[in-house]
Amino acid sequence: MKKIYVLDTNVLLQDPRAMFSFADNEIVIPAVVLEEIDSKKRYMDEIGRNARYVSRLLDSFREWGHLHQGIMLETGALFRVELNHSSLSKLQKQFTEITNDNRILAVALNLQEEENVSPHPRPVILVSKDALMRVKADALGLIAEDFLSDRVVGEHSHIYSGYHKLQVAPDIIKSYYANRRLPLQTSFPQQRFYPHQFLVMKDECNPSISAIGKVDTEGKNLEMLLADDDPMWGIRARNVQQKMAVELLLREDIPLVTMTGKAGTGKTLLALAAGLLQIEDLQTYKKLLVARPIVPLGKDIGYLPGEKEEKLRPWMQPIYDNLEYLFNTKRSGDLDKILAGMGSIQVEALTYIRGRSIPGQFIIIDEAQNLTKHEVKTILTRVGEGSKIVLMGDPEQIDHPYLDESNNGLTYVVEMFKDQKLAGHIRLEKGERSVLAQLAADLL
Predict the structure, then answer these.
(1) What CATH number labels 236-443?
(2) Whole-model pTM?
């Protein structure tokens, strides 16, 4: 049975091509949604970009017919802008205030009333990213759904982890150590492995015997890790996932590395230590570029005084904290003198990355879970020849209003690149910052 989908404004601001995700059903855009999109199109951020994209897309639809009468999309869906059914009389007892949300609810409710008396009634479904909007719709007897087509995985727990644990026969581990490699197709014929995926094999007869390896580029053999246990600028891997992360960070044949994990698992510190080692000691890259998205936690502090570096300092302080630890600075101002003298470390905001080409650099993007798909695409397309980029963050700590664990830019890259030869991923699980930090990450 075909359905009628009424789209909330936030669906189009999250995915400007959302109307192509509803197969051959009917898609209704209330007129008030156009007003809300118009009010957002002057924003100089991702929301403004999407508002402008939707405006241009709807304008192009006019070539196919009058939008208030309905046009057929390439997916077979009937798309129309609803100018009628806007009466608030059905809602006035429950929601007295005249708001844009209530006007959208009124359209959906009035459409449902009309369908209920038709010979072949169709379900009317309100689609919104706003949880309270869905709650209000449910209270009115409307079917309400979240927009899920922008998610690359169903749940956060299903996100690719970068490693796999297996119980194996003793002979497999012995063969692996003897030959320093293991043919995967003969040893595990029923399993599928991704390039640069890690395997943790445990002896099924004696769990204390184990082996760690990395799947090769072709996904056919398991190979020994190349990275040794020598410290990187005083930092050494403390657990098996950190050891896997070091392997990915130090390999030149893997230009894209993604790392996820809770606060305190060592993502930023490991990435900075690996970058400094390859820039200052090995001279594999010319410069270390560290950037973070400017997304506040809680209420924004507003405009900041000073030059660009002074304005950025509060946002970039987590990076400077880790650099102070790596350089073992004792007094305030010592780190600034060191960085000025080196000249090979650049701490930047992602605001200034558009239009750049960045060759021969080790690039670290922190808090990448606050990036949208479009923003992460913009960043990755800036990477020049001979550069390596590391995207890291915690998908459970998102400050962006329209993102969640399943549709943010970091998760998008992890899932889209997991079967690519140029990319590697690892999820860090054990906190190493302190016992209190690990307990807080687990309990809160």
Answers:
(1) 3.40.50.300
(2) 0.78
